[in-house]
Design brief:
The complex is a heterodimer of chains A (299) and B (325).
Chain A lengths: L7 H5 L3 E8 L7 H14 L6 E5 L7 H4 L8 E3 L2 E3 L1 E2 L7 E5 L15 H14 L5 E7 L6 H9 L7 E7 L3 H16 L4 E6 L4 E2 L6 E2 L6 H9 L3 E4 L4 H8 L5 H9 L4 H12 L2 H15 L8
Parallel strand pairs in A: 1-7, 1-8, 2-6, 2-7, 8-9, 9-12
Antiparallel strand pairs in A: 3-4, 5-6, 10-11
Chain B lengths: L43 H6 L8 H9 L2 E8 L7 H13 L6 E5 L7 H4 L8 E3 L2 E3 L1 E4 L2 E5 L15 H13 L6 E7 L6 H9 L7 E6 L3 H17 L3 E6 L4 E2 L6 E2 L8 H9 L3 E4 L4 H9 L3 H4 L4 H17 L2
Parallel strand pairs in B: 1-7, 1-8, 2-6, 2-7, 8-9, 9-12
Antiparallel strand pairs in B: 3-4, 5-6, 10-11
Helix pairs in contact in B: 5-6, 7-8
Chain lengths: 299, 325
């Protein structure tokens, strides 16, 4: 295999220790919310951990909204694109998404494969990620252009890539999750484990648990396929509202931008820790991190 | 502070072939075969000769097949998992409840086909005859076509790039023996990419009667749906209206309604107003909908007294009205 320094992508990702791809065959099962939580939890793991989050869902980017970064734009520097930092001056949570490149939020990105491929290559080779402990990559649904491009362009750093599969418990979603698993096998990517999302909903009124999208399917699939089951997450309305939070009024937002920081996002981290999902997710992250391959050339 | 460099003349997205290089000017552009991006493209000579400014050879075949189809309806949403396939299925079942109508369902979600499971026909296969591929029939007047019927195993991933997907979609439109149909409902994957462009290109001449756009109430989904409506406008598909799915959940125990996905920015109703499209209605979340889909039975037939069934039927009536049927 070529040495990592050989390609622009390899050079850029030279100082990235672990790359975690979050995928699922099905849409709307919570890939972006899992990616966001993964990034937040990994960042919180130690006061020096640096995390990057790359959103390659080109036609439906959700990460900027979830991190409260709607309306930010990417700056060009002599050394490449500067990612948007969700935690302002601390700069330990770097984020990149096609959402930052759009002029208006309702603009559609109508691109066919080759153009998506080029954009992904640019995200990997032209963004100044710097040194990162983890790069979390959020993917669109399916197993198509974006996924193939990712794997192709990251071939020089293939040994550092691992994947997390997200599914919901119902049969229709599991079917697509199986396809995603077969993709990871075909491309020879290790799977850290499976997360079952939206498993059960607690009625805020009487506390009754309803299995909105059935339950247990993910665990069952993990057992059948010999995957590590990372855990199940119930529907958490607090988390939904937090990640969906209304953006600040435009003027206020501009002032905030001018001050060079994003206070909204700082609050996001604090508030995330208070949601019922946060402790559950911490356990998931621990399991996932334990399954990561040891970084090469280091202990 | 450059946000992104825009290619100077933005090509008509419909005229860029699926296997074109990154900055293809579009085959029917004045620059076809002559732009910088064309250097090295396998099709450069063909483009430069000017024949590509004519129509795709598959188009007359598609037009012929589609000449016996009265209404062509797209079900779209920028976001995944909001219930496009479920809605498509309900629409199919509701149309097919009228025995005098012939309905066809075409699933162009190639990487994640759910339609076969939702209709309970996942193990069926497509048969080829002299008049083309015959769709799988759920009942006499409801035919279904999906890539799910053609895979050797439901577990295998379909790892296809755009051009191959484009090829299959053109085959679905020109080679499937749909017969005379009153409605052809097309279920799409999330996003605004290859599949969508292909469908629109191939059906340009036959005309699409309209698109039903599905959303869920939270802003993360609305964002993607805004883009989808923008896409419809760019390519000239009329939007029949917007449906808000998973809107509110009625606890089976205490009968109180709560919002799982809070409409923090006004939900679908507000979006419809802002974008100037019709709001067709809201369907509450009912766990039995998902269950029916898993078991491949018709939710409308199984639970006719659920508030979700009433909502579905109202929406379907409004769609019929808007189409003038």
């Amino acid at each position: 295999m070529a040495s990592p320094e050989d390609t622009p992508v390899g050079r850029r990702l030279q100082h990235v220790k672990h790359i975690i791809i979050v995928c699922s065959g099905k849409g709307g099962v919570g890939k972006s919310s899992v990616s966001t939580q993964l990034a937040l939890s990994l960042r919180a793991a130690s006061p020096t951990t640096r995390v990057g989050i790359l959103d390659v869902d080109l036609t439906g980017p959700s990460i900027p909204r979830m991190l409260g970064l709607d309306g930010h734009s990417v700056h060009q520097s002599s050394d490449g694109w500067v990612p948007v930092y969700a935690d302002g001056s601390e700069a330990r949570l770097a984020c990149m998404s096609v959402g930052f490149l759009l002029k208006r939020k309702e603009d559609s990105v109508v691109w066919r494969g080759p153009k998506k491929n080029a954009m992904i290559r640019q995200f990997l080779s032209d963004v100044r990620w710097g040194e990162l402990d983890y790069l979390v990559i959020d993917t669109p649904p399916g197993t198509s252009d974006e996924h193939l491009s990712l794997v192709e362009h990251m071939a020089p750093v293939h040994s550092r890539i691992s994947t997390v599969i997200v599914t919901t418990p119902q049969a229709v979603a599991l079917l697509d999750a199986m396809k995603c698993l077969s993709f990871t096998r075909a491309t020879n990517l290790p799977v850290l484990g499976l997360i079952e999302n939206m498993s059960g909903y607690v009625c805020p009124c009487c506390g009754e648990i309803s299995n909105v999208f059935s339950i247990g399917g993910g665990e069952e699939m993990a057992r059948r396929e010999g995957l590590q089951f990372l855990g199940s997450l119930p529907v958490d309305t607090e988390l939904v509202s937090l990640l969906d939070a209304v953006e600040p009024a435009d003027e206020e937002f501009d002032v905030m931008l001018a001050e060079g920081g994003s206070r909204h996002s700082f609050r996001l981290l604090e508030r995330y820790d208070k949601t019922p999902t946060a402790p559950l997710f911490r356990a998931i992250v621990e399991k996932a991190v334990a399954a990561l391959p040891a970084p090469e050339g280091q202990e | 502070m450059i946000a992104v460099q825009q290619a100077v003349p933005i090509p008509d997205p419909l005229s860029v072939p699926a296997n074109a290089p990154e900055h293809c000017p579009g085959t029917d552009s004045e620059l076809a075969g002559k732009a910088d991006a064309c250097a090295g493209c396998a099709n450069q000579e063909i483009c430069a000769s000017g024949v590509t400014r004519g129509p795709d050879p598959a188009l007359p075949l598609v037009r012929e097949r589609m000449s016996t189809v009265k209404r062509k309806i797209l079900v779209l949403s920028g976001k995944g998992g909001v219930g496009k396939s479920t809605f498509t299925a309900q629409l199919g079942w509701a149309f097919a409840a009228d025995e005098t109508l012939q309905t066809g369902i075409m699933d162009v979600d190639i990487c994640g086909p759910s339609i076969p499971t939702i209709f309970g026909i996942a193990s069926e296969q497509v048969h080829a005859s002299s008049s083309g591929w015959s769709p799988v029939y759920v009942q006499d007047n409801l035919g279904v076509m999906s890539v799910g019927f053609m895979l050797p195993s439901s577990k295998d991933a379909v790892m296809w790039r755009g051009p191959k997907k484009n090829g299959l979609i053109s085959q679905f439109l020109k080679d499937v023996d749909w017969g005379a149909l009153d409605y052809l409902i097309i279920d799409t994957p999330p996003g605004t990419s290859d599949e969508h462009l292909s469908i629109v290109t191939y059906l340009k001449e036959s005309g699409i009667d309209g698109a039903v756009v599905i959303t869920t109430p939270q802003e993360v989904a609305l964002q993607d749906v805004r883009r989808e409506i923008d896409f419809c406008r760019k390519v000239g598909i009329p939007v029949i209206g917007l449906v808000e799915n998973m809107s509110g959940f009625v606890c089976p125990n205490c009968k109180n309604e709560s919002q799982i996905f809070k409409p923090s920015t006004g939900g679908g109703r507000r979006l419809a107003q802002d974008m100037g499209v019709d709001f067709l209605g809201a369907v509450p979340l009912d766990p039995r909908i998902g269950k029916s889909a898993d078991y491949g039975v018709s939710f409308l037939d199984e639970y006719p007294d659920s508030p979700a069934s009433t909502a579905y039927l109202d929406i379907i009536d409004r769609i019929r009205q808007k189409l003038g049927d």
